[in-house]
């Protein structure tokens, strides 16, 4: 009696890539929303070069400041989930490059966690009841922590830029996602890298980059997140050479059956 060794028509198996794609889209969208909230709300507290004004803003709106911190932490957790799901989805294209992209993202998330800690430090410094330092010294320390948090954020953005660049390259090479999404993601990565190095090198045009970086991020990451969430991927069912779609897009290579030579 011959045993059937080919792929089955299990709904759970066939739906798995679609579920992963839509989960990645959901968590990527959550990353965008929470990080935007953290950036725009958190940035309102900082007055460049004015430690007293920054400290006053933080302590007078401490709950909102803490909420910005929490949103940034949630964004980091969501992006860790995105990293795993995107690695699994793109592994069939090139396992090693997909793994490299995951390492870039993990490094960025680790640096982002440090940035979150530095962002929270002013609340602890200003509200800790310290008696060793003067009020002015505490205010200066608080501004220093916030400044270091922003610098750490720029460093993390380098690795996030490398992550989306690599993911964009893999999407361009794939057969199951539109190539335009990969191109947009590559543009996003270039925007992130340009912004960070402009800040590191204190280039004269750095103050004008934020609108372009924000637009590039929304266009690239936002487009991919919405596509994954709404469209998903197509999973062929190997029965007599016919495929059955469980999502829109192009066939997902990880679900194709092997040819007689062992190649897909």
Task: Explain the overall architecture.
This protein has 264 residues and is mainly alpha-helical. 70% of the residues lie in helices and 0% in strands. It is built from 7 helices and no strands. It has helices at 11-42, 51-60, 62-90, 95-127, 135-173, 179-200, 210-230. Helix 1 runs antiparallel to helix 7. It is elongated, with a radius of gyration of 23 Å. The chain starts with 10 loop residues before the first helix and ends in a 34-residue tail after the last helix.
Keywords:
264 residues, mainly alpha, 7 helices, 70% helix, elongated, disordered N terminus, disordered C terminus
Short note summarizing the structure:
Helix content is 70%, strand content 0%. The chain is built from seven helices and no strands. Mean pLDDT is 84; it is low at 1-15 and 237-264.
Mean of pLDDT: 84
Shape: elongated
- Secondary-structure element order, as H and E? HHHHHHH
Straight-line distance between termini: 28 Å
Per DSSP E runs of 2 or more residues, the count of β-strands stands at 0
Largest sheet: none
Uncertain ranges: 1-15, 237-264
Mind telling me the C-alpha Rg? Answer: 23 Å
